[in-house]
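User: quick one, sequence for these tokens?
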């Protein structure tokens, strides 16, 4: 069974002074906390055992918001990352959580949204679980790949190169903040050394799989949205994106209760109760409506 990690640490310095008082990942992206977006990404992959890693100061806020996750059919646990020592440290801090099976890591400030995303995720998880590959990265076409880590794949989707902010990119596929690995990732992470900037780099994990011929690049492609909410401007852009889609389509992106219901982590009655607990908001009313529609569909 695949287990998940949400890495929601860091200082959020680019969003200062707001983040002097609250974790970046607890800030709203339009109508819900930022953390709902990566959390529902893991849920859509079929993951319900999730470790949330954050700073000692910020962890109590996440615990107040999410609890142990049982109301959503999840098992949420928490761990501290006192200092931002690199993304790969998530697999050292979370070694006991993910050891012995596949795992998924998502960054707490990354938003993914697009058609058939859930089925793409679950298909990628099956590739790991079956042993077809040991690592699946997700590539997103960008106009300025020289600003990102860039992946290149062959015609079969096998990763053949990774470059960090290359002057002459071999591809326009930026590597996003979502990573799937087999059980070897814990040992790989334990044996990498800090980079010149003193961090344990996720790229070093990815290169290890690449060197073994065990890495794949899943192209998210056109019509998909990958948003990073690390600056004031990108946070506003993400909120406007969510607002536009939700108002036009009448649905809510990353509604955690709706995703739990769709994934059969909870039933319609539990979804309805969760909505009624938030009945003073449009969000809560939407959750109640989702539960009612689900019940009506089941009875039809």
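Assistant:
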């Amino acid at each position: 069974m695949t287990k998940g990690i949400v890495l929601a640490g860091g200082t959020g310095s680019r969003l200062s002074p707001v983040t002097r008082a609250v974790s970046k990942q607890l800030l709203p992206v339009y109508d819900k906390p930022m953390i709902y977006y990566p959390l529902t990404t893991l849920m859509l992959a079929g993951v319900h055992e999730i470790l949330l890693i954050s700073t000692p100061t910020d962890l109590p806020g996440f615990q107040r918001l999410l609890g142990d996750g049982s109301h959503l059919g999840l098992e949420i646990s928490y761990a501290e990352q006192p200092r931002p020592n690199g993304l790969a440290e998530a697999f050292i801090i979370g070694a006991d959580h993910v050891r012995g099976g596949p795992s998924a890591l998502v960054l707490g400030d990354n938003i993914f949204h697009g058609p058939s995303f859930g089925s793409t995720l679950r298909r990628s998880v099956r590739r790991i679980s079956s042993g077809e590959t040991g690592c699946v990265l997700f590539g997103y076409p960008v106009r300025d790949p020289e600003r990102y880590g860039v992946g290149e794949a062959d015609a079969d989707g096998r990763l053949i190169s990774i470059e960090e902010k290359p002057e002459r990119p071999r591809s326009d596929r930026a590597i996003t903040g979502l990573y799937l690995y087999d059980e070897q990732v814990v040992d790989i992470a334990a044996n990498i050394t800090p980079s010149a900037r003193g961090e344990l780099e996720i790229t070093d994990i990815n290169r290890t799989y690449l060197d073994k011929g065990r890495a794949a690049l899943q192209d998210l492609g056109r019509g998909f949205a990958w948003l990073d909410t690390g600056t004031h401007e990108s946070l506003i852009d993400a909120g406007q994106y969510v607002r536009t889609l939700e108002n036009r389509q009448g649905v809510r992106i990353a509604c955690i209760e709706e995703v739990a219901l769709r994934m059969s982590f909870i039933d319609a009655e539990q979804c309805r109760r969760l909505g009624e607990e938030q009945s003073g908001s449009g969000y809560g009313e939407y959750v109640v409506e989702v539960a009612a529609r689900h019940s009506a569909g089941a009875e039809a």
